[in-house]
Amino acid sequence: MGTVVLVLLAALAIGAVTVGLVRAGRREALAEQARLAEEAQLQARRSLDAVWAMDDRAFEEYVAELCRRDACTEVKRVGGAGDLGADVTGRLPDGRRFVIQCKRFAKHRTVGSRDIQTFNGTARAEHGADVPVFVASCVFTKPARDFAARHELCLIDVNLLGFWNSGTALTSFLDLDIGRSGTHRRLHPDPD
After folding, report:
1. Closest CA to 88 of 118, 53, 58, 116
2. Do the Cβ atoms of 99 and 180 come closer than 8 Å?
3. Under 8 Å CB-to-CB from 168, ≥6 apart: which residues?
4. 3-state SS, residue 132
């Protein structure tokens, strides 16, 4: 009987230690998950800070590189004087031709309806775009979003740019209802 009690006590002790270790492992895993999420947010913020520090040409190259990363082909940075609204061109993985207009503005600025209307007038007619995309390092005004929704333009604002930069594929943004997604509220400028 004494041996049975000792075996039972040993089993209970082993069980208690095992439960404690499992709980500690879960706590550690949750803490690591939270740390990784915080690090991802910090990294995204750092990368967007780098975007705001780029000049126009570097921003266009950056967007072209994101397209290449997402398996787009024939990607070219074509922006410059007289580009008629095409800064980056290429083909999506499914073969459709895209034309991207890039606007690298300070984060507290906005892109208005006039810029979107101008791009809409040239993307398909001048450049033969199947998919016109407008990428900005700030937000779009409500009228700009409404116009883009009516004319089936893809808008990638600073918020979606953060997702794109973090690995979301360009094709994930093409079917978003831009009239209902995102925000048109300006971001506050950094304090000097």
Report:
1. 58
2. no
3. none
4. strand
Specify which residues 99 forms β-bridges with: 89, 132
Which residue, 153, 140, 76, 146, is CA-closest to 112? Answer: 140
Phi then psi for residue 57, to 5 deg, are -65, -45
- Condensed to tens digits (0 to 9), the pLDDT of residues 88-101 reads 999 999 999 999 99
Please state the length of the chain.
192
Give the model confidence (pLDDT) of 10-38 as tens digits.
888 888 888 888 888 888 888 888 777 77
pTM, rounded to two decimals = 0.71
Identify any residues that bridge with 111 across adjacent strands, giving them in sequence order: 140
Copy the structure tokens of residue 9.
């006590």
Closest to 161 (Cα-Cα) out of 123, 111, 113, 97: 111
- And the tokens for 122? 């040239």
Residue 171 DSSP label: G
Bigger pLDDT: 134 or 106? 134
Could you tell me which residues come within 8 angstroms of residue 66 by beta carbon, excluding any fewer than 6 positions away?
164, 165, 170
